[in-house]
Write a structure and sequence with these properties.
The complex is a heterodimer of chains A (617) and B (258).
Chain A: H1 3-7, E1 12-17, H2 29-37, E2 42-48, H3 54-66, E3 71-76, H4 79-92, E4 100-104, H5 106-110, H6 117-137, E5 145-147, E6 152-155, H7 159-170, E7 175-178, H8 201-214, E8 218-221, E9 224-232, E10 235-242, E11 245-251, E12 253-256, E13 260-262, E14 277-279, H9 280-289, E15 297-301, H10 318-342, H11 358-367, E16 388-393, H12 403-412, E17 416-419, E18 427-431, E19 434-441, E20 446-451, E21 454-457, E22 461-463, H13 467-474, E23 501-503, H14 513-533, E24 535-537, E25 543-545, H15 555-559, E26 565-567, E27 573-575, H16 585-589, E28 595-597, H17 602-613
Parallel strand pairs in A: 1-2, 1-3, 3-4, 6-7, 6-12, 7-8, 12-23, 14-21, 15-16, 15-21, 16-17
Antiparallel strand pairs in A: 5-24, 9-10, 10-11, 13-22, 18-19, 19-20, 25-28, 26-27
Chain B: E1 9-14, H1 18-27, E2 36-41, H2 49-57, E3 62-67, H3 78-95, E4 103-107, H4 113-130, H5 139-153, H6 155-169, H7 180-203, E5 209-210, H8 211-218, H9 222-234, E6 238-241, E7 249-252
Helix pairs in contact in B: 1-4, 2-3, 2-5, 3-5, 3-6, 3-7, 5-7, 6-7, 7-9, 8-9
The chains are: A alpha/beta (617), B alpha/beta (258).
């Protein structure tokens, strides 16, 4: 059996990487490799220009066979990105991938000691000595193959969630789509029109919604929330709460597409202190519902609360959305106001809370995580005339292929773009009864005042009110801005670090509809992969209980957040490998030292650490 | 001495936050002195105090533990346990006669590359100021650390350290939440007792000693030594050795013999 390998005399191969000049420019790679050869059990060492390139990988495979290596160390970059590649490579050469150890001499050495070449070389030797001490004690492991429940859960019925659900469903797998509101559409429900078209936004996505609602593989849960999730990739047990009624089901993978909401803060540029100050999303909703005040002079203020004001990031979409609305005002405000008047929905002004129109109040309550009821307050008013639209901005970023043209179009329509700098932001004040924007004209270098009828604040998208709950429930992280944090900012954009859970749309940061759909489809492809495969291979990391030492005290059961340890009939503990994530909490907590962690045993950790202390001089 | 002293510092970093933060530190080219040797673990909660005591006994000048920020643990609650384990560790290090500042716990997220370099730089300087570890020069301290390691491995301290988080957050069987400072004092009292008992067992290993001898050797009043002896006898860890004369002497029971 494989067990025999553990008692085999270690034959260790050490591959030291130059990584071009990244390591080789600082660390004396050759002397490090020569040093490695002197370490106990090391029978082969070599250096590679790039170990991760095909010739580097081939040299690992060939050397394993040629020198009959039973342990392999690669000293190069970080295991967090490259361990899977090298593990697969040793696997191809017939070596159990758990007999491989990574030594980080780039991120933890050459890149952080660039001015101390001797110190870095000495440290690289030390790190390899530690790796050798560890690899000697590693044991081969089998990865349990676990079956996969061939269905997916999508949380959130906005465009990203719908795109994800539809794509998984089209691949033939059942999808549970859970939306907390009474209809699909997410943030788009608040929007007046989408770019380029003047059609109602919901009309534009209606065909999409129809496909989702009519697809036989999609089970739709409206007015619902996911109330509990338990399990691991391939085997999640979930509970869905629909107005108090609970549905239990099993899924293999989960896509989080819970969306975002827009930021607002009372008092920020007079928001909710002065009448006629609304957020950009509220303005869209007013245009959509045709609940409008008579107005002629409009001021958009960009980057409100974002880019270092309250939130650090740029919300990306606001420039384009403000431009779209500016054009819409010039072209359509009079028409919209007329419709509002015909429907008796024109209002004299947008009052502050609690008198604000119910649609807006409802939106504000939802943003804060509370539901709202309907009821509309209405009054009529006279028609609109020539529009004066000003967009106060720090810089306009109309990214995207056609958006620069739309920006130009807005300027052709005499929308004014006035720049401000963050140290001299415009102010919204009330001059008597006149709403006024005070600003510093950057070109003329003078303070100016502009009386306006309506101020529209481009506040950033912020994480939805449910993000924190869902993050806790699924055990997936939020970034410092409260959005979901993907596994790798560049290389794994829709994965979470936790296998089996994926993220799409504005839940992970501001995005426009196209991007949200891109991400939804990307996440669907990632989430469907294990469903197609039919099984998952769990990493062999789990805790193991020695029944001869266990006293059945139950401490491990208390401390494990995953419920992996359970009590057997004889009262002793047992770890369910599939539920164990390998953190080691139970191992360190066991009062009888009965629990050991696979390939993170006390013995291995101490050997590695002690090798780091006993320098070779 | 201070110029030539090149401290050996072992860092236990969790895979998800602080190891990743160290990676980002490298990617961003923030520099720090090359004294740190990193051992990667999946979660900082994995490192039990006895492992760190062993590393200190073997001659590490400093030990750094890096975890995710509280509330951000990849394993939900692991770092809350880490906090308690390090608290016990520092207490035992101090009892052993070593500076507890040689142990440093820091929460470093995957995005805090710059912080990582700052923390390592400062900790390295701190250890340089403290000078080389006494564990290699002072046999008593080495023996004390060994006793502390045994105490840390024992049932009582392990169970107490591990149960603290749940006792503080969820409460005990009766749903009563315990007061943090009260719980801390319970743990510290237990640490004092277990450490002294471990010393007694180490001293009486293969050698009979009277209460008076022990009292002198470990600098603990005789009545307290006797209390320990009673407790150790209850647990069949020490036996009375009927040697010569009137004074009873005690000898540790070696399980399995030697």
């Amino acid at each position: 059996m494989q067990e025999q390998k553990t008692i085999e005399e270690p034959r260790i191969g050490v591959f030291v990487c130059h990584c071009g000049t990244n390591i080789g420019g600082v660390v004396d790679v050759k002397s490090v490799a020569e040093y490695a050869k002197t370490l106990p059990g090391v029978v082969f060492t070599t250096t590679n220009l790039y170990t991760c390139a095909e010739d580097g990988l081939a040299s690992i495979r060939d050397s394993i066979k040629e020198h009959n290596l039973n342990r392999v160390i690669v000293a190069s970059c970080t295991p967090r990105t490259h361990a899977p590649l090298f593990q697969a490579t040793v696997g191809e050469a017939g070596l159990n991938k758990y007999l491989f150890t990574f030594v980080n001499i780039r991120e933890h050495c050459s890149w952080v000691h660039m001015k101390d070449k001797d110190g870095a070389t000495e440290k690289a030797k030390g790190l390899i000595r530690m790796g050798v001490a560890r690899v000697r004690l590693l044991t081969p492991q089998d990865e349990p193959k676990l079956p996969v429940e061939k269905s997916a859960l999508v949380i959130g019925g906005g465009v990203a969630g719908m795109a994800a659900a539809l794509s998984v469903a089209k691949q033939g797998f059942p999808v549970h789509l859970v939306e907390k509101e009474k209809e699909l559409g997410g943030f788009v429900k608040n929007l007046n029109n989408l770019y380029v078209t003047t059609k109602d936004a919901m009309e534009s996505i209606k065909p999409f919604i129809q496909k989702v609602t009519s697809h036989p593989n999609i089970k739709l849960y409206l007015n619902s929330k996911v109330s509990d999730v338990y399990g691991y990739i391939g085997n999640y047990e979930i509970k869905i709460d629909t107005a108090g009624k609970e549905t239990k089901t099993k899924v293999g993978t989960i896509i989080v597409a819970t969306g975002a909401t827009e930021y607002s803060k009372e008092g920020l540029y007079g928001y909710n202190v002065f009448k006629n100050v609304v957020t950009l999303a509220e303005f869209e909703l007013m245009c959509k519902k045709k609940i409008l005040p008579k107005a002629q002079r409009f001021a958009f203020i960009q980057c409100v609360g974002s880019r270092g004001q309250d939130k650090s990031y740029c919300s990306r979409i606001c420039c384009n959305v403000a431009i779209k609305n500016a054009i819409n005002i010039v072209d359509n405000y009079d028409n919209m106001l007329q419709i509002a008047q015909q429907n008796n929905k024109a209002i004299p002004e947008v009052p502050v809370e609690p008198k604000a129109p119910e649609e807006i109040m409802d939106r504000r309550r939802r943003r804060r995580g509370r539901g709202g009821d309907e009821a509309v307050e209405e009054e009529k008013h006279g028609p609109g005339e020539n529009m004066e639209v000003t967009v106060f901005n720090r810089d306009v970023m109309s990214y995207g292929l056609e958006h620069e043209l739309i920006f130009n179009k807005a300027r052709e329509k005499r929308v004014r773009f006035v720049r401000y700098t963050p140290d001299r932001r415009p102010e919204v004040v009330m001059n008597g009864d006149q709403l006024t924007v005070k600003y510093f004209h950057e070109t003329l270098k003078v303070e100016r005042e502009m009386p306006v009828d309506l101020v529209i604040l481009s506040t950033p998208l912020v994480a939805g009110p449910d993000s924190a709950t869902i993050s806790k429930m699924l055990k997936v992280p939020l970034g410092q801005d409260g959005f979901f944090l993907e596994a790798h900012v560049k290389l794994r954009p829709v994965d979470f670090a936790t296998d089996g859970i994926f993220v799409a749309g504005t839940a992970k940061g501001p995005a426009d509809i196209t991007e949200a759909i891109d991400q939804g489809e990307a996440a669907s492809s990632r989430a469907a992969t294990p469903l197609w495969k039919g099984y998952v291979q769990a990493e062999a990391l789990s805790a193991k209980v020695d029944p001869d030492v266990c006293s059945g005290c139950g401490t491990c059961i208390d401390v494990c957040p995953y419920g992996a340890p359970t009590k057997k009939e004889d009262g002793l503990a047992e770890i369910i490998a599939a539920a164990c994530k390998g953190c080691g909490c139970c191992g360190a907590s066991c009062p009888n030292n009965a629990i050991s962690m696979t390939n993170f045993t006390d013995e291995q950790l101490i050997a590695e650490a002690v090798a780091g202390i006993k320098e070779a001089h | 001495m201070a110029d030539t002293f090149n401290p050996k510092i072992i860092g236990f970093l969790c895979n998800w936050c602080s190891y990743a933060g160290a990676d980002l530190c490298g990617v961003s080219r923030y520099q720090y002195p090359p004294n740190l040797r990193v051992v990667r673990v999946m979660c900082s909660t994995r490192i039990s105090p006895d492992i760190m005591l062993r590393v200190l006994r073997e001659g590490a000048d400093g030990v750094m533990i890096g975890g995710c920020h509280l509330g951000d643990c990849h394993y939900i609650s692991g770092n809350y346990y880490t906090e308690k384990r390090v608290d016990l560790l520092k207490k035992l290090v101090e009892l052993s006669g070593m500076e507890p500042e040689r142990v440093h716990l820091e929460w470093i997220s995957a995005s805090e590359g710059e912080k990582f370099s700052k923390v390592v730089t400062e900790f390295t300087q701190k250890i340089k100021n403290l000078g080389p570890t006494p564990a290699l020069r002072n046999a008593d301290i080495a023996k004390n650390l060994e006793a502390a390691e045994e105490a840390a491995k024992g049932f009582r301290l392990t169970a107490l350290t591990s149960k603290q988080y749940n006792l503080l957050t969820k409460g005990n069987t009766y749903g009563e939440k315990l007061d943090q400072s009260k719980l801390e004092s319970i743990v510290h009292t237990a640490a004092d007792e277990e450490y002294e008992r471990a010393l007694i067992l180490a001293l009486t290993h293969g050698k009979s000693l009277s209460v008076k001898d022990l009292s002198k050797k470990i600098n603990v009043p005789t009545d307290r030594v006797l209390e320990h002896i009673v407790e150790l006898r209850k647990n069949s860890l020490i036996a009375m050795d009927h040697g010569h004369g009137q004074t009873p002497t005690y000898r540790a029971i070696i399980i399995g013999g030697e």
